[in-house]
Amino acid sequence: MKQIKNMMATLFGMMSKAFSNKANGKVIFAEQLPDSVKNFVMRNFPNKNIASIEMKPNANETVYEISFSEGTEVCVNSNGNWATVDCKLDSVPTSIVPESINSFIKKHLGNMRVLRIDKTSYGYHTFLSDASMLEFSNKGFAA
Questions:
Q1: Predicted TM-score (pTM) of this structure
Q2: Backbone φ and ψ of 108, nearest 5°
Q3: Cα angle 30-78-143, degrees, rounded to a multiple of 5
Q4: What is the pLDDT of residues 40-77, one digit of tens each?
Q5: Distance between CA atoms of residues 68 and 62, nearest Å
Q6: From the centroid of its chain, how far is CA 61?
Q7: Where are the alpha helices (DSSP H) in 1-143?
Q8: CB atoms < 10 A from the CB of 68, how many?
Q9: Of the candidates 65, 76, 77, 91, which lies 20 to 30 Å from 55 by C-alpha distance?
Q10: Distance CA 22, CA 56 (A)
Q11: pLDDT (average), residues 35-42
C-alpha cells in the first residue's frame, strides 16, 4: 500500500511540474496581439481562424504561439518575426519560405511541399511532404 502511495505522489509531482511549465504562458485574445504579429497573421494566413494564442515571455523577448482552427501552428515574436511555422498537412505559405529554399525545392524535388519550417541560429530546417527533412544555411543553401 505504501508503494502505491509513493507511486501516486511521484506521478502527481510529475504532472504538477508539467502543468506548471505550461503555466509560464498566458492565454490571450487576438485583439491583444501586437500590431506586428497581427500583420504577420493577416499577410500570411488571411483565411484562417485563430483557435488559441499563448503569450510566453522569455528573457529577451515575448513569443506568441498561435494555433489555428484547422491545426496550423506558428511561433512569432513581438516584432512579427516567425521562429516556427507548422502547417501539418498543408503547405507553408511561400511568402514565409525564403525564395532560395523555394527555388531549390522546385528545381531539385519537383512537387515536394514544405509542411513545416523552423528558423535556427544557423539557418532553416524544412520538413517536406514526403516526410523528409532538409537543412539550409541562413543564405538558403542546402546544408
A1: 0.81
A2: -100, -20
A3: 115
A4: 999 999 999 999 999 999 888 999 999 999 999 999 99
A5: 19
A6: 16
A7: 2-22, 35-44, 99-109
A8: 19
A9: 91
A10: 10
A11: 97
